[in-house]
Structure formats: C-alpha cells, structure tokens
Amino acid sequence: MLEPPLPDSAVKALGRWLADPERGRRYADGSGPHTILYAPAKWTAVTPWPITFADRAVDESASVSRAEVVAAVRAAERSESWAKAFVATQVWGYGGSGYGPYRTRQVLAQPNAEAVLTEAVSLLVDEGAVAAYELLNTLHGLGPSFFTKFLYFAGLALPEVKGPRPLILDRVLAGVLRRHASKAGRAHGYEWSGAVARWIWRDGGWSPHRYDVYLRWMHAAHARLTAATIDWPAAPDVLELALFSGAWNPE
User: Fold this and answer.
1) How many CB atoms lie within 10 A of CB 125?
2) In whole angstroms, what is the distance from residue 59 CA to residue 77 CA?
3) For residue range 88-131, what is the model confidence (pLDDT) as tens digits?
4) CB contact at 8 A, 83 and 114
5) Distance in angstroms (rounded) separating the CA atoms of residues 85 and 69
6) Nearest by Cα to 14 from 229, 187, 185
7) Residue in 45, 53, 117 with CA at minimum distance from that of residue 82
C-alpha cells in the first residue's frame, strides 16, 4: 500500500479537486479557511471555554475555522490549559452535532483528563505522534476520530514536534484507506486483501501501529502530490481535507 502511495488516477482526481473553485481552490494556500458551524449556547455546561470563541450567552449559530482553532490552542497553551485547547478542538470536530457537548464534558470529568492531555502533548514533542496517540487512547469515551483532532491542532500550534506532524484519522479517512488497500492488494494478486483491509481499516479502534501506517502513507502521498505538476499546497493536512471531502474514491 505504501509503494506507490497514490496511483496516477488519484493524483489527477486530487488535482481536479484543487483546481475547482467550488471545492479545493480555497485551500490552495492551506486548510486554514476550512470552517464549520456550531451552536455556542449548547456548550454552556462545558468548561473551560476558549476565550477566543463565541459568547455562549447568545442563542445564535457561530462559525470557527481551522486557523481559528489553532489560534485558540496557542492561547490555551500560553495559559497552560490543555483542557481548554481540547474543548476548542472538540467544538470544531463535533460542529452542529447535538451530542458533542455531552461527550466532551464526560471526557473532561475524568480525574486524570487534564494530566493525560498535558502528558500527550509532552509525548508529541519528545517522542512523536504515535506515542501521544497511544496515551490518549486510554481516556474513556474518547475515540481516535476525536482525539486525533486534538493531536492535529496541537501539532499545528506547537513550534516543533518529534517526527511527522499528526493528522486527523476518522472513519471517512479509514474508509478511503480501506478501499485503497483492498484495490492495491487485488492488483498484486491478493484476492483476500478486501477482508484484511476491512479489518485493519475498520470504522474505529485503530491501534497505534495503524495510526503510524496512516501517517506514513499520508505524508508519502503528500510528497507524491507536491512532486506532481498540480501546484499542490505544502501543508499535508490539505490531503486529509481533500480525502474527507470525497476528492478521490479508490474504487
């Protein structure tokens, strides 16, 4: 699956997505403008609240971009509150979903939550994304689809981290990898590749090793895109956004 990381058809499809003014062109300089809507009033019971986010006393919808989440995480780091940074990433991650505030509150209610978040950031700096992933996987009720959002934004906010910067892995991205691995395996004569791909790239519960494979594949695929003549952005997270948006279907 890692060699080659992307077939020519994928490079062409992703190039079309990037060139499309209704889809990827707005991210030609990075994923910062990618924005979601949320209802601040629904987050009233969640503390601590990022100081740069919308006033929760106003019963109106608000928007927050990836760039704004990064700014909120940096502000939280300066105040030494990784719990506040975590809330910022979950607001963006859940968007308009009604159960986001409840789940976020349940995670933060655990006695060790703040300590685990803080230690995960230290591991990200000193040992890398996979070590931080393994630790965050111990928090009850917080699956990889959402703690990789925390890792991703922390990685963008920090000046340096060990190894490749983390990226978001959720069931949509896993689905792309599942279809790609299955097709690549069949192309090499492995008829059983579909069953194996369905297991290792299932909808959740990915091991730290699987996250490591995901990061290596994504960064290799990003290098393939930047080497192509499609003016692909320098930021690897644009590939994550493109795949999440359905820019390429391996099937």
Assistant:
1) 16
2) 28
3) 999 999 999 999 999 999 999 999 999 999 999 999 999 999 99
4) yes
5) 8
6) 229
7) 117
